[in-house]
From TrEMBL, chain A:
Belongs to the ABC transporter superfamily. One of its GO terms (biological process) is peptide transport. It comes from Psychrobacillus soli. PANTHER family: DIPEPTIDE TRANSPORT ATP-BINDING PROTEIN DPPD, OLIGOPEPTIDE TRANSPORT ATP-BINDING PROTEIN APPD. This is ABC transporter ATP-binding protein.
Automatic annotation (TrEMBL), chain B:
Keywords: ATP-binding, Nucleotide-binding, Transport. This is Dipeptide ABC transporter ATP-binding protein. One of its GO terms (biological process) is peptide transport. The keyword Transport applies. SUPFAM superfamilies: P-loop containing nucleoside triphosphate hydrolases. Belongs to the ABC transporter superfamily. It comes from Psychrobacillus soli. Signal peptide: none annotated. CDD domains: ABC_NikE_OppD_transporters (cd03257). GO terms for molecular function: ATP binding; ATP hydrolysis activity. Residues 6-255 form the ABC transporter domain.
Length: 351, 323
């Protein structure tokens, strides 16, 4: 964990600017992700937290160029990798990038491995595509990788099929698959949600080691704040399609600014007296089809003011901590809103 | 002073699995020699990793699976030998809340039907009284009477779980077995449902068996905890004792694997090697010996018994074997 990360000092590897992602419905389209800004430097780890349906996976699919076509599309904004715009690449160029510069570990390890091919066959793919290697070299390389990832008997496992392995082992195979292409950026979508805590500890340990040893940047998607505290440098909290708070991990835990983040932290059972009533956020997450007017959190927020129900709050930032909430806007009057919004864009461009 | 509501003695549930036409049957020892008792009014937790037999223990107590052997005494009566009809009657006092709020409610029935059905099945009250009960309970779990004529798909996960809880509580049971009741819910909704369970326990004097793999939630809500590994209880203790000072090497590893609460918290982690072995061919001796950092020779051959220590806690581990 690096000390006091300044959100804008390191050279960015990944930049997301004002990203909107929408899905086409029968007669119109529905915006699922709105106004996302974030940057990730080489070697940094970022956590994306948020409840089910908040748009975490959709965001990662947008980065990977894997939004389901033709329904899902980027309706505004751009994504840059190493300064190069990747959000409008052709499918062929994007495929080149995937498994080479960016790799992803998916939420469901069971469904993302092909049941009819051996582990070795599947792990050969990234090596075949991008590197000139003999069959034997590939095999050695794969066995080495499996061993590095703590898989015992790799010489044997390489010829087995996915169904012969446990969930934790399959997830490690997925990580091997992602790492063999030596990506600059590893996106892990809930890599441990389906796993037991003892296996989760092994996998997080592994991701931490990869990040340290190879200086791979990691984007970790999770709904578990504890996992974020474990391995992330910084964190973006998503709520109903938007980033509502974005800062380094320590600041988030010590001085959360957004009422949603405050509620999330306060409701962790460990933060409450045993057997006592847990702090809880009332109400339910709104569906994307019936988002409230104004702030998306206004239906559940204990501080909601008139302006919260009328108009969406802008994102305000002091350079290393940004938050999307009217409580943190100096003048919640009409005119200053536009200025703030503009500032926000500039902040993203500058960083 | 506290009196026992449920006593489980040497409970076993072995599932036969077929290995194809010509091979012998083998058995999954899902629950293997499990004994514990639950006091009136307490919350008894069962924790452990996936596949260790938590759900099977709960389901076998309620005889949603038939047991292989053992006894289950409920209020002194052995319910493991009751006829189907008598067991059906007994279930009025023993209810279950399931993990999956989506699958556990009949999609074709209104909430009113779902809530009044258990009362009707047990022949309780008149139709009008049953409807009144439903209206009363729906408000108690934090929903509204106007919700009674809607269908399950119109509700969110957290609301459906409230309905599942209402359905269990409406019979005024003595014991509720809650199998991962909050695991499928979002963090902010989890705390609402936990609060509901705590409040209902006070109001209706309920006893809970709370099954979960979430160590934080179990710590918050339970009085005593049993830790299971491969179908057996390896440690049983008061919740504070267990979390303050776990004794079994597996409990120690399990608790240390829990994610930290703050980035500054230091990690003192026992990383277990490998995966949980298959329950079809569990290791000899102590089933944990293949992953245990303190494994001794005796552990490979002899099964450690769940021994009661002086302070009332129980551990099944040769390290604590009184010779
Ligand atoms: N292919 C699709 N077509 C239409 N809507 C979609 C599609 N995929 C996702 N969505 C919608 O986008 C929203 C965000 O979904 P997403 O999968 O990103 O959530 P998430 O934050 O990853 O949640 P979870 O924690 O459950 O994985 C949801 O409301 C979902 O219904
Ligand atoms: N109907 C069944 N037939 C065969 N095996 C079964 C059956 N039900 C459960 N098992 C096996 O019994 C063992 C214990 O399963 P159980 O569902 O009780 O575990 P659990 O502790 O509840 O796990 P989880 O945390 O995943 O819910 C597992 O190995 C499981 O595969
Ligand atoms: S903008 Fe208003 S409603 Fe939204 S989080 Fe801030 S105070 Fe609450
Ligand atoms: Mg997702
Ligand atoms: Mg279970």
């Amino acid at each position: 964990m690096k000390e006091g990360i300044q959100l804008s000092t390191l050279k960015p590897l990944l930049e997301i600017r004002n990203l909107d992602v929408s899905f086409r419905t029968q007669d119109s389209s529905l915006r699922i992700v709105h106004g996302l800004n974030l940057t990730l430097a080489q070697g940094e780890t970022i956590g994306i937290v948020g409840e089910s349906g908040s748009g975490k996976s959709v965001t990662s699919l947008a980065i990977m160029g894997l939004l389901p076509k033709p329904t899902g599309f980027i309706s505004n904004g751009e994504i840059l990798l190493d300064g190069r715009k990747i959000s409008d690449l052709k499918e062929k160029e994007m495929r080149e990038l995937r498994g080479n510069d960016i790799s992803m570990i998916f939420q469901e390890p069971m469904t993302s491995l092909n049941p009819v091919f051996t582990i070795g066959d599947q792990l050969s793919e990234p090596l075949k595509r991008h590197k000139k290697m003999s069959r034997k070299e590939r095999r050695t390389r794969i066995i080495d990788m499996l061993r590095t990832l703590g898989i015992s008997r790799p010489e044997k496992i390489i010829d087995e099929y996915p169904h012969q392995l446990s969930g934790g082992m399959r997830q490690r195979i997925m990580i091997s698959l992602a790492m063999l292409g030596e990506p600059k950026l590893l996106i892990a979508d809930e890599p441990t949600t389906a796993l037991d805590v003892t296996i989760q500890a092994q996998i997080l340990d592994l991701i931490r080691t990869i990040n340290k040893q190879k200086n791979t940047s990691v984007m970790l998607i999770t709904h578990d704040l504890g996992v974020v505290a474990e391995i992330c440098d910084k964190v973006a909290v998503m709520y109903a399609g938007e980033i509502v708070e974005y800062t380094d991990v320590r600041t988030l835990f010590d001085k959360p600014l957004h009422p949603y983040t405050q509620g999330l932290i306060a409701s962790m059972p460990n933060m409450n007296e045993r057997k006592g009533e847990l702090y809880s956020i009332a109400g339910n997450v709104p569906r994307p089809t019936d988002l409230p007017k104004g702030c998306h959190f206004s239906t559940r927020c204990m501080y909601a003011m008139d302006c919260c129900h009328e108009e969406a709050p802008p994102t305000t930032s002091n350079g290393c901590h940004s938050v999307r909430c009217w409580l943190h806007v100096d003048q919640p009057e009409g005119h200053s809103v536009e200025i703030e919004e503009e500032k926000n864009v500039q902040y993203a461009v500058r960083s | 002073m506290s009196n026992t509501l449920l006593e489980v003695k040497r409970l076993k549930k072995h599932f036969a699995i077929n290995n194809g036409l010509f091979k012998d049957k083998s058995y999954v020892k899902a629950v293997d020699n499990v004994s514990f008792s639950v006091m009136k009014g307490e919350t008894f937790g069962i924790v452990g990793e996936s596949g260790c037999g938590k759900s099977t223990t709960g389901r076998t107590i309620l005889r949603l699976n038939e047991l292989t052997s053992g006894e289950v005494l409920f209020d002194g009566q052995d319910i493991s030998t009751l006829s189907y009809e008598d067991m059906r009657k007994a279930r009025r006092k023993l209810q279950m809340v399931f993990q999956d709020p989506y699958a556990s409610l009949n999609p074709k029935k209104t909430i009113r039907q779902i809530l009044t059905e258990p009362l009707r099945v047990h022949g309780l009250f008149t139709k009008k009284e049953r409807e009144e009960k439903a209206a009363e309970i729906i408000e108690i779990v934090g929903l509204h009477v106007s919700h009674l004529d809607r269908y399950p798909h119109e509700f969110s996960g957290g609301q459906r779980q409230r309905i599942g809880i209402a359905r269990a509580v409406i019979l005024q049971p003595d014991l509720i077995i809650a199998d991962e009741p909050v695991s499928a819910l979002d963090v902010s909704i989890q705390s609402q449902v936990i609060n509901l369970l705590l409040r209902l326990q006070m109001d209706f004097n309920l006893t809970y068996i709370f099954i979960s793999h979430d160590l934080g939630v179990v710590k918050h809500i339970t009085d005593r905890v049993a830790v299971m590994y491969l179908g057996r209880i390896v440690e049983l203790a008061k919740t504070e004792d267990l979390y303050d000072q776990p004794m079994h090497p597996y409990t120690q590893a399990l608790l240390s694997a829990e994610p930290i609460r703050h980035p500054d918290q230091k990690r003192d982690r026992i990383i277990l090697k490998g995966d949980v072995p298959s329950p079809v061919s569990p290791p000899s001796g102590c089933t944990f010996h293949t992953r245990c950092v303190s494994c001794m020779e005796i552990c490979k051959t002899e099964i450690p018994l769940l021994e009661i220590m002086e302070d009332g806690r129980s551990v099944a581990c040769h390290l604590y074997n009184k010779m």
